Amino acid sequence: MVTGIVYHEKYLEHEQSPTHPERKERLAYTMDQLIEEGIFEDPRIILLDPFEASIEDVLEVHTREYVDFLRRESKKGGFIDWDTNIPVGVFEIALLSAGGALRAAKAVMDGEVDNCFAMIRPPGHHAKPYTGAGFCYFNNMAIMVKWLLKNGIKRVMILDWDAHHGDGTQEIFYEEEKVLFISTHQMPLYPGTGFPYEAGTGRGEGYTINIPLPPGTSDEGYMMVLNEVIKPVAEEFEPEFIAVSAGQDNHFTDPITGLALTARGYAEIMKESVKLSEKYCDGRLVAILEGGYSVESALPYTNLGIIAAMAEMDISYIREPLNYLPQLKWRRKESALIKLQSNINDVIKVHSRYWKCFG
Amino acid sequence: MFIGVDVGGTNTDAAIIGDEIFTLKVPNEEGIGGIFRKISELTNLKEGRVVVSTSLPLNLLLSKASQYPTCTVIIPGPGLNYEKKGKIISGFVNHRGDIVEDIDVAEVRKIFEQTSYHNVAISSKFSVRNARIEDVVFQLAKEYFDENVIALSHHTGGLNFPQRISTTVVNAKIKKTVFELTNTIKEFAGDFFYYKGDGGIIPYQIALHNPSELYNSSPAAVAIGAHFLTREKDALVIDIGGTTTDFVMIEDGKPKIIEKVEILGEKTLVRCVDSFSIPFGGDSAIENGRLLPLRKGKPVAFGGDNFTLTDVLNLEGFEIGNHRKSIDFARNLNINSNEILESFVNVIVKGIESVEAERIILTGYLGKFLSAIISKKAGVSAIVPEHSEAVNAVGVAISRISLTMYARFDTEIGRATFNGEVEDSKFKQGSLPSDEEFIEAAKDKVLEVARTYGHKDEESVKVIYFNSYTVVRGGLKKGKIADIVVQIEPGISQDVKW
User: Fold this and answer.
1) ipTM of the complex
2) What ranges do the domains of chain B cover?
3) Does B95 lie at the interface with A, CB-CB under 8 angstroms?
4) Fold designation for A3-358
5) Which member of A100, A126, B95, B161 lies 3.0 to 4.6 Å from A6 by CB, making a disulfide possible if both were Cys?
């Protein structure tokens, strides 16, 4: 197994403001951990340089008006919403971020690597066709998936594990039957969407699956969702490509969310995803970094866990340092499992119309 | 006075450089003590700056590595699985350099109680950010092992835990040999320096912590010496020694360096000159009319009783050593000297062609005899420097101190770490120094260390790596972190006249 990592030092340059949660040192601690673990010199890992996405590829997802607006504002600095400034020069870095996702997809499609992790910034899954939002400018995932569909892939399964609902990605593929969009996200939380009844429309009806997670959902809860919803649907959908929006703000130390996933849990769900990709898609899988704001406590361990699981390394030592465990005890809620089971039942009820596995 | 000593495979070369250059060659059979006694007959070693290059004994030792089993103790904490690399114990230093998990003393003792090991390598993750855990395990190890067989990973360089582990294992295996060698040399020379594989020199005290830095030092010395003696900036240096012939490229006046050299089948943090060798030299034996890739003893021309490549050259009309003895010895042998010489020259030419060299510098004791033939055959211009038979020793003598410093400043917690050793930072806790201030502080530190060993050059510190970022908590800037690698680059000492 050879896993690609798309990364560029320029991804560290983007900064909305020095104290914004999505700030440049988000990856600095992670890079320390990866370098210390010798990841970039492991024969199972290939470091890939991204390129800037072409405007043509971006326009497959975003409106020309928005692209022109972002380009113009990025020259002098501007503003999209309270969470999302337009710092000078963000246009080029956003293109490099989207291009990072494309680079990952191409590397997998060309057989350069078996699967690939696009460790890119800024993130993308809140970006809609006509606007950026929630720290996102271009929807990296959607740009990549559109490219895959244009290049011979017939069915893509998106697993969006960011703690926040991937409203941008959902909106872009809401009427698309070739893209199965599955999102697990904390509810209630920004952006406030992602209810089970949001299930797609038109040809896309049934191809959007939202599984809200109560605060305090732990590794066990994620495995429940995986076993009861994701795996059966994957078997029926038979994806040719799996694309993971690998947000890491579901970690129990994340300062702006309330979920309780651990680094090991993260590695385990990635391991299961890799298994799914091997079963249905000849191993074709790309994970794209989205959110994740516990820059020091979680990201070094979760990113390592993702990469280790993707490259089929031993993940038995993936964990956080023991001094974080009191925080996990506090964050993890047993009651969340009961609420989650009820949410899963709602999802199955909505989707039993579309999927035989839930019938 | 600059004194350089290079212990090769067959002979030891020495150069004494003052207003003039004086060189000498001593056979290794006289031992390190014998060699230094000879040199001290010519000059007062304790008044000069003595530099020693000794990669060969280390290379020989490493070829017998399995005879020196290492107890590899690994303190990885969370992350990848290192069970295959050694014995895992508890304890963890995180990426910030904080000790967040303690070691279990009973667990450590249990490992050391097994006495089948020759030496100990102790490696903790992120030890270059805080070596405290390694130091604690070291104290325990000393109760069971001699201090001189215990190596710690924070001395080996920067981030890359798997490579620090493998470098520490190499260090553990060779540390005792280097320690004993050091004591012998100290008896004659007092304080002295070792020559590194990248062409710089380090005080013996530092080499004892990280002896793998001496790896492949002879080719580095040849390259630096050849540049010094010829002023050539771009050329292939070919050093025809007794046992091997070494090839090293110099580019823009410096030997080409390779990083992360593989030793004992594992990538290490060792950097050294990019050289390659062929197993033939002046002492290579001739048997059944063929040149063999091995040394059986001294050439006949130098009082030995083995016919060698050197003796072949004497049959071809050269006058090396007692050339008549070579000719007499060959009378009863059926030797086609021309054919043997040509086969040797052809291998050299192949080496030249493999790196597409346009100019060569020939050194070693056969260099001057073979330059015309090789130059013609390879179609390249050749230079033979003065003192060509001891260019390596000249290179050793004239190089300057080269130190690498891994500095980290963390102003949120007011800590500075230099090569794993934690100190109070000169920057106030919570301060936000500029990048320039961080770089200056790192440069000052490496110069401060170098000056204690006699380094005088002010302008030669190079920044190899720099990264800094702000620590933000609760939306407020609480400090800055900077990682800096600075290096006094290898080069020629400013005190040497040239």
Assistant:
1) 0.94
2) 68-171, 404-488
3) yes
4) Arginase; Chain A (3.40.800)
5) A100
